[in-house]
Amino acid sequence: xxxxxxxxxxxxxxxxxxxxxxxxxxxxxxxNASRSLTNFTGFSMRWYxxxxxxxxxxxxxxxxxxIAVIATAVSTVVGTIVAIGLSKSSRLIKQVVTQxxxxxxxxxxxxxAIGLMLLFSTFNVPTGFGTLLLAHIMFCIPYVIxxxxxxxxxxxxxxxxxxxxxxxxxxxxxxxxxIPQIKEGIVSGALVAFTMSFDDFVISYxxxxxxxxNISTYVYATTKRINPSVNALSTLIVIAITLxxxxxxxxxxxxxxxxxxxxxx
Length: 265
Prior knowledge:
The protein is mainly alpha-helical and 265 residues long. It has a domain at 55-223: MetI-like fold. The protein is built from twelve helices and no strands. The radius of gyration is 23 Å and the shape is globular.
């Protein structure tokens, strides 16, 4: 019998190669001793040393991190409150707000970016750190709401009322009963918001001001000249994301194993 060619495995390999070969290429040449991006002349850490000595690059990392953290915190709080409020609203209000919430995600980034730029210029708001932060908060909130709403649909509608009957105040029912039940959705929404903020380029490019660059706008500004330090920066970001993914997947497995061990003990 003739063996069947595993086309599905070939397709999978090609897709994985398409996704990961550029990343491997960047990581490999971040250790190149020369400035060349095509000829590896020897192992060196010089571009990592240069990265940490380049003030503009370190400032871009700082701005990316601080804006992503603040935008994630604000959008998570606001998105959680809005999602909980929508779950208790009438069907008409829920549908209208949901459609409005979906607009920033359906709109192309360039449309949102130009709209925000025109808004700031109309009201003579000087672009800079503040406008960049407001823009990031604006486009992160819909992703948080979208992540939390499915968890709220799974909740029993009588859960909050039962908490109130047992003596909880509305605030206590919120953070002692409702939030613990939807914490997975809140965490996933926060992670999505952080990723979207840290990775954004188009909206950041149109809403930032002079002297304020995140990583994406800084890298774009350096594309016209060869800068191997960008490879070093990209490598560190890849390593950080990989470690976060490993930790976020290992910790739940350890918790499940510990729970099983406690149940069998």
